[in-house]
Specification:
It is built from 15 helices and 16 strands. The protein is α/β, with parallel strands linked by helices. α5 runs parallel beside α6 and α12 crosses α13.
């Protein structure tokens, strides 16, 4: 057992049976001031007012007035990739759009070409550095997608790298198979052949070897149609992969409705939404995940997160860390963008990045809040006057130390 004492504020206290927060609930954050917390076997077993703490023989860590917050749960990343894409960054500055760069062989196809030439060992080495980096910035759980392989061998190589990250790190890491991320040039005229020859065999191996828990599909014009997505999910259903889908990023073609109808755990991006889609999400188990860093970096509309919360929805915030549209896994900056550009309150952004992010990975029973029985994944801050300190201080980190399973990392 360990004691953490003299905590200025504990933020994000929830009953352990709360799996997500919706609507007005998202603006509520329970706080205990002048507090203590007890950890045993990597889990939270007790917390409360310092006046009620009783001295014991367990090691005691004096936080000397620092605050405690649950770690972020980043539920949408592409953190395994071969190389960054600075050249495309310059093209964007010169006026090229995301779609124009992709049509010229850049974008996802560019990353796939580089990944195919990169060894598993080198991919693991670079991804390890990125995971270490985001952990230092307060992330205590990650979802990671494949999707930069686009061949059987390369997609499975990515999934095996994600599996090794899961084995090597103390934080929960969940894998999504995203073979339906783009259509390789040789299959451009016949996407069905790509689905049959690459995606289906990968699903079989990923399920058999337990390399993925989720299936993801980029449902978008010039990528995968609603019909394509339905066929892929029909097949992945046989193997028990749960849908987490890219929808409504560049156009509104009914992908959100399909995600909800198919019981997707999350529907991600949502930059192109109307009230019709917002209403369709009401009272559904599917959570909407918004990715403001992507909108910021490639200058596309921001998802209507304010409107979604005001309509009673639950939303999650995630980084979308990837080499093309979001080369950052800094969840603190994600909170800043959500507050500045999407008009979330700091409390709403915090809940979206913690308990609701955990829900979007099917992990809110394990983490995402300070709750009895949950993993002790939290970070400390010496300078926080309120939750607003995090999005307000967008240019510097407010985090002093990060603890995973009660151990400092």
């Amino acid at each position: 057992m360990k004691n953490f004492v003299n905590i200025k504020n504990i933020y994000g206290i929830l009953d352990s049976n709360v799996m997500r927060l919706s609507g007005a609930e998202m603006n509520e954050v329970e706080i205990i001031s002048d507090a203590y917390m007890k950890i045993e076997n990597g889990r939270i077993i007790e917390f409360g007012d310092m006046a009620n703490w009783m001295q014991n023989s367990a090691p005691t860590i004096d936080l000397k007035g620092n605050s405690v917050l649950p770690c972020y749960a980043d539920s949408h990343t592409h953190i395994v990739f071969a190389e960054p894409r600075e050249h495309e960054f310059e093209l964007k500055i010169k006026g090229k759009t995301y779609e124009e760069i992709a049509a010229a062989g850049g974008g996802i196809l560019n990353s796939a070409a580089k990944l195919g030439e990169t060894s598993e060992e080198k991919l693991l080495q670079s991804a390890t550095q990125r995971v270490q980096q985001v952990m230092r910035m307060g992330t205590g759980a990650l979802e990671i997608k494949s999707g930069y392989g686009l061949t059987i061998d390369a997609e499975l190589k990515m999934l095996r790298v994600i599996q090794k990250l899961y084995e090597n790190f103390p934080i929960p890491i969940k894998a999504s198979f995203l073979g339906a991320h783009a259509i390789p040039s040789i299959y451009k005229s016949n996407p069905k052949e790509y689905i049959d020859k690459v995606i289906y065999p990968c699903i079989e191996v990923a399920a058999k070897e337990e390399l993925a828990e989720f299936i993801d599909i980029f449902i978008e014009k010039n990528y995968f149609s609603l019909e394509d997505a339905s066929r892929i999910m029909d097949y992945s259903d046989k193997y028990g992969l749960k849908p987490k889908l890219h929808v409504n990023q560049l156009s509104n073609m009914g992908a959100l409705q399909l995600a909800v109808d198919r019981g997707a755990l999350s529907a991600d991006h949502l930059e192109e939404m109307t009230q019709l889609e917002i209403d369709y999400l009401k009272d559904k188990t599917t959570i909407g995940t918004v990715l403001p860093s992507c909108s910021f970096f490639i200058k596309i509309p921001y998802a209507p997160a304010r409107q979604m919360i005001d309509s009673g929805l639950a939303i999650a915030l995630a980084s979308d860390y990837n080499p093309g549209s979001t080369p950052s896994g800094n969840m603190n900056f994600v909170l800043s963008l959500a507050c500045i550009y999407q008009k979330l309150t700091p409390s709403e952004a915090f809940n979206a990045a913690t308990i609701n992010g955990a829900y979007a990975m099917d992990l809110s029973h394990e983490l995402g809040s300070i709750s009895i029985g949950k993993r002790a994944n939290f970070f400390t801050s010496s300078e926080m006057n309120s939750l607003a300190s995090i999005p307000y201080s967008f240019g510097r980190s407010m985090i002093d130390e990060v603890y995973i399973n009660g151990e400092r990392v």
